[in-house]
Amino acid sequence: MSLFNDKLKKITLKELLSLIIILFVIQYLINALNIVHIDSFWIYIFIIFYFIFKLRAEIFSIKNDIPEAFSPDILKTVLGVVILNIFFSYGMLYLSNSILDFVPSVNLFNSFLTGSLIATIFISPISEELIFRGVFLNRLQLAVPVVFAVLISSLLFAALHSFGSIFSAFIFGVCIAILYLKTDNIFVPIFAHFLNNLFAEIIVVMDPNKILFTNTSVVLVMSILAIVSFVIILIFIIGNLKKLNNNDL
């Protein structure tokens, strides 16, 4: 265990939640008074600086953690999880679009990824992994069995996402929680989250005509890949959750 990850595990839920609540209250008040518009991007930035401040004494110990996140074995697993999740995510988006066709009054669906490019690819992976895996998952393990800690932290992570991607975000959250517990290195889920968002943004940019959603043949192929990906991901999750339950990860 690195000194950085050891110190990260000591940050309490009470302290982090208090900070998040205060930041959102300040955001609401400033926006309500029309002083200046503040969006969630700046809250995430502030939270990252909070973690930097809390972990400043051990910040240089990450020189060993970062290279580990790019080791061949970990890289292969991360890429597998991310690519399977991309296919599965689009399958869930197809399903959500179909549901909304029958329930037009429900206006919850947003684009697969929202916010600016920098926020989506860089800021969100860092801040969300520090929050949900670095603090929530670690502190929940002290109160409930590790499998429940993984499921609860992943459910909270999924709640941040839009209607069309809640379930796929939950599945992805479980996968990267497992990766974090297997490696005890927060930079592994950060890297996986970064790759996931990067690939998703690249697909959006390369598909301006929405062929992935309008071409019947493409939709059929993607749907089949989504089902296959879900089965493989499910096998990965069940196998590793059993190991977690037996403390044999």
SSE arrangement:
Blueprint: H1 3-8, H2 13-32, H3 40-54, H4 62-69, H5 72-102, H6 117-140, H7 146-158, H8 166-183, H9 187-206, H10 211-214, H11 216-245
Structural class: mainly alpha
Proportion in β-strands? under 5%
Give me the oligomer status.
Answer: single chain
How would you describe the shape? Answer: globular
Helix content: over 70%
Distance between the termini: 15 Å
Task: Give the helix tally.
Answer: 11
Write down the Rg.
19 Å
Q: Can you put this structure into words, describing what you see?
A:
The protein has about 250 residues and is mainly α. About 75% of the residues lie in helices and about 0% in strands. The chain is globular and about 55 Å long.
Summary keywords:
mainly alpha, 11 helices, 249 residues
Concise synopsis of the structure shown:
The chain is mainly alpha-helical.
